[in-house]
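Thread title: Can someone regenerate the structure for this chain?

I was given the following input by a collaborator and told the matching structure tokens would be attached. They weren't. Posting the sequence so someone can regenerate them.
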Amino acid sequence: MPKENEFRCVVTGGCGFIGSNFVGLFLSEYPQAKVLNIDRMTYAAHPQTAQMLSLLAPDRYQHLRADIADPQLEEILARFKPHALVNFAAETHVDKSILDPSAFVQTNVAGVQNLLSLTRKLGDVRFVQVSTDEVYGSLNPDDPTFTENSPLTPSSPYAAAKASGDLFALAAHHTFGQDVVITRCTNNFGPYQYPEKLIPLVIANALEEKCIPIYGDGQQVRDWLHVSDHCRAISLVLSEGTAGEVYNVSASEEHANLNLVRGILKRVGKPESLIQYVKDRPGHDRRYGLSADKIRHTLGWKPLLNFEDGLNQTVDWYLENTHWWQSLRDDNYAAYYAANYAPKAQEQETQL
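Best answer:
Regenerated them for you:
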């Protein structure tokens, strides 16, 4: 990827958790580059995050409210003339995918295919598909961690939809020679994460002294990665990754959910009596774990923030930004959204 002054990057889902962190990093890392953020602003995209991004580099950044599955994006992309597209846009919550898989197929499969088709028409555009370790399925306690060559055995509708999107991306490379690379990450944590996810949910519930639900026995193991390290990996793959390749991104920080919850409660000074065990999720994967040897050895990436420091920073951020997550938990959030963001989010022609 050239680092010329006029590098132009489309980021889809850039108002979400990982996407917004990436946009901030990218605008800083490439001080002359321009970003078009295409985000439909679903429930997990906070209007304050969108407004924060618009202030980072107003002359180099623009947000377009649109659906990645909309074929009419062709005209917008052709006018913007991107050198790259990084796709973060996705439906991500496993519980919601179990209740209604259709939305996950629409965004995570049809949306990806639409973006692939549209960028292929433009010619020389690098396509980065941001995916997940969940496409590999579940590990037993003593199994070695997944590598990029591990078979895809997704357990949930969410994971199946993400795996399908990945396969469409790889097929575009093999069939059409499209410049596609895929990253698959472990569980992310850090600032600006929607409070339905485990770490911000525990922090928010603990601060409000609400019960903290734990699925089953709480011994499900997840591999944790700070969002800043993940975004650095994506940026590196964008610039130096090999077309047609998959790169796992992991800090090799595996922790049982129950232990993680207990650690957060201790950090915020709340009792473990807030923990409430609930019926396990259907098809709940027992353990995730990725090997990041490939990206470490071929591209020289490594995590810079250790888990304990990253978790301390994350807890501090949620303590200092209660207004951000409380607005998302407010029953009147729809009205808040309409008053603070929707009027400003009309579709517009990009002038970048």
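The chain has 13 helices and twelve strands.
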